[in-house]
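Meet the record:
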Amino acid sequence: MRKLSVLLLLAALLTVLPTKAQIRGNHINIMVTPDHQDWNYEVGQTAVFKVSVLRSSALVDGAVVDFEAGPEMYPDVKKQQVILKDGTMTWKGKMSKPGFYRLSVTAHVDGKEYKGACTAAFSPEKLQPTTKEPKNFDAFWKKTLEEARWTSLNAQRELLHERSNEDVNVYQVSFQNIRWGSRTYGILSVPTKPGRYPALLRVPGAGVRPYSGDTYTAPTQAIVLEIGIHGVDVTQPQRFYDDLMNGALNCYWNFGLDNKDNNYYKRVIVGCVRSVDYIASLPEWDGKTIGVTGASQGGFLSYATAALDKRITFVAAVHPALCDHTASLQGIACGWPHYFYKKQEVRGERIENSKEVETSRYYDGVNFVRRVHCPTWVSFGYNDDVVPPTTAYATYNTLQCEKKLSVYQQTAHFWYQEQWDEWQDWMKEKLNIKK
């Protein structure tokens, strides 16, 4: 009877549980592969790429493709409507100086477009950034932080019961940022067991969004503060943030580009450092360990925070943006948001001498990286077309500290599961978290 009851229960559940087909991947795939397994070449060598247009892993005869090839962001070969008789083609590319060479392919199959790419590195360990360092860089940021700290944190926090559990208390917190009334908001996770814990600061990628907090890295063994950067509550419905992103904060990364004192990222960076102040004020902090981590815009903010606050004990940066803004002035791939890409003039003057270029140097990840001295883990992909590997690698080469580079060549501006796992494991080690 018991077995019959179980079977009847399962049958009943199957009749009421919703069924939904899962959509994964594409029937058509474009594979672009190099002839070196690590995608790395020396300057002067030739990279040979093989392109395959596949349907259910079988070659598509007569596939039609468009492709571009050359240094990333500056392809010097463009071909359209090329017919691949047997669904394949080969392409050769080389570089005469350190950099990244990308072959991007778009296939037209059954009225739809499918894309693939491969980016080969040529002596990437020799890449160096182009940005110059303002003579008063340190003085500017020292004064900025001193003035911000004239304003007390005046911290506030509210327990989020629905997000908390027996192991961790989760709060929405806020504290003063650069001046009175300007606040930074975030989600704080604190172990419920009394004690003193290491801490992790999570800084965000670009955009405007709510935050749920980190209750997964080490919920019983570490404090984690995940912050927003826009000075607004981080627990509102998504529509609230969509309206901001499409309204008052649309393209916020361009705000104040011609004035270092009015630049949007001035307040953002100060907010990251004041987040460290807040963590340091918590009685649960162990007084020793604070790491900082983020991806894309968050990678840049991780560099900036560690450069300006020596209490940071480690950095984990993934495909870091906002690095080497001026590279494009020399025809080299530049970091997101690509401020000067294909621009010759700003406000009627040559861009090299513009206020925009001058201001960008105070907000360039390269100039912060030169001041990072704690252990740093960096990861990115060669196929990233948002944060070019040229800038990520050149910036990494600038680091003068204990460092580790983990490349996942095929990734673009996203993560692989293995990359995520490695990132988490490295941070747990630095937090002295037992697995």
